[in-house]
């Protein structure tokens, strides 16, 4: 059994105890399992998301948020009404 300490971009995280012995496999698992993982440690091994990787994920999030807000604005701008003459 190994323990992996992980931290997220919001400075939260935790410790995962599991049977995954390979550090790289644990990194892959934790990044898929928890949102926003930026650092993982186990004994003397450390994995950390690079600054450029953080920036590119921020851009992707921002672009999707912009698209969602534009779609919402468009749907609010033309509300469906049963009364055509109101």
Count of separate DSSP helical elements: 2
Describe the oligomeric state of these chains in a short phrase.
single chain
Looking at the structure, what is the overall shape? globular
Rounded average pLDDT: 77
Major beta sheet, strand line-up: 2-1-3-4
Our Rg estimate from Cα atoms comes to 21 Å
Structural class: alpha+beta
**Helix fraction bin:** 40-55%
* Uncertain stretches: none
Please trace the helix and strand order, writing H or E for each element. EEHEEH
Number of strands: 4
- Major sheet summary line: 4 strands, antiparallel
Please give the alpha-carbon distance between the first and last residues.
68 Å
Query: What percentage of the residues does DSSP assign to strands (E)?
Result: 25-35%
Give an overview of the whole structure:
The chain contains two helices and four strands; from the N terminus they run E-E-H-E-E-H. The chain is globular and about 70 Å long. The longest helix has 27 residues, at 51-77. It has 86 residues and is of the alpha+beta class.
Task: Give the arrangement of secondary structure elements.
Elements: E1 2-8, E2 13-18, H1 23-33, E3 37-42, E4 45-48, H2 51-77
Antiparallel strand pairs: 1-2, 1-3, 3-4
Short summary of the structure?
The protein has helices at 23-33, 51-77, and strands spanning 2-8, 13-18, 37-42, 45-48.
């Amino acid at each position: 059994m190994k323990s992996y300490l992980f931290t997220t971009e919001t400075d939260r995280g935790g410790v995962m105890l599991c049977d995954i012995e390979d550090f790289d496999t644990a990194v892959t698992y934790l990044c898929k399992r928890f949102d926003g993982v930026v650092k993982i440690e186990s004994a003397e091994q450390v994995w950390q998301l690079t600054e450029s990787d953080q920036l590119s994920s921020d851009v992707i999030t921002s672009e999707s948020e912009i698209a969602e807000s534009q779609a919402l604005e468009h749907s609010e701008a033309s509300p469906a009404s049963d009364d055509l003459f109101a």
